[in-house]
Amino acid sequence: MAKNPGKAFEEDTKKSVPDWCWIYRFKDGTANFAGEKNQNVRFQAHNICDFMIMANERLYLLELKSHKGASIPFSCIRPKQLEEMAEITYPNITAFFLLNFRDIERKML
Predict the structure, then answer these.
(1) 107 lies in a domain?
(2) CB-neighbour burial class of residue 70 (10 A; exposed 0-12, middle 13-18, buried 19+)
(3) Structurally, how many domains does the chain consist of?
(4) Coil, strand or helix at 2
(5) Do residues 26 and 51 make contact, with C-beta atoms less than 8 angstroms apart?
(6) Dihedral angle of Cα 16, 19, 22, 23, to the nearest 10 degrees
(7) Which of 27, 63, 69, 100 is most exposed, with minimal Cβ within 10 Å?
C-alpha cells in the first residue's frame, strides 16, 4: 500500500531538520467524553500547527500542507488556525505554512 502523501511530507520535513535543532510533532487526534444521557461525544482536537522547532534562540512553528495541483485552496486552512498563526508577535517566534505541491516536480539548477 502506498504511503499517505501528507505523512511522507511530514517525515521528509522532520528528516530535513538539523540534529542541533529540537523538533516536536504535535499529536493529532480525537477525544471522547460522556455527554448527556451517557452518549459518547467525539471531537477533534485542533493544534495551532504541526511542528515546533527550537533552533538556538528561535522557535519556529510549522503548519504543513500537502496538496495536488499548483495551488492550495484557502478552504484547506482552518480560519482559526490562520488567525492564531498571524497573531504571533513575539520577537523570537516565527510561524510558517510549509506548502507541498506534490504532483509538481521542479529540478533545482
Answers:
(1) no
(2) exposed
(3) 1
(4) coil
(5) yes
(6) 30
(7) 27
Pairing of strands 51-55, 22-25: antiparallel
Read off the pLDDT of residues 25-65 as tens digits, 9 standing for 90 and up.
998 765 555 555 656 655 566 889 999 999 999 999 999 99
Sign of the torsion angle spanned by Cα atoms 32, 33, 39, 42: negative
Predicted confidence at residue 34, as pLDDT, reads: 57
CA distance 23 to 61: 10
Task: Give me the sheet containing 22-25, strands edge to edge.
Answer: 22-25, 51-55, 58-67, 93-101
Residue span of the structural domain in which 39 resides: 5-101
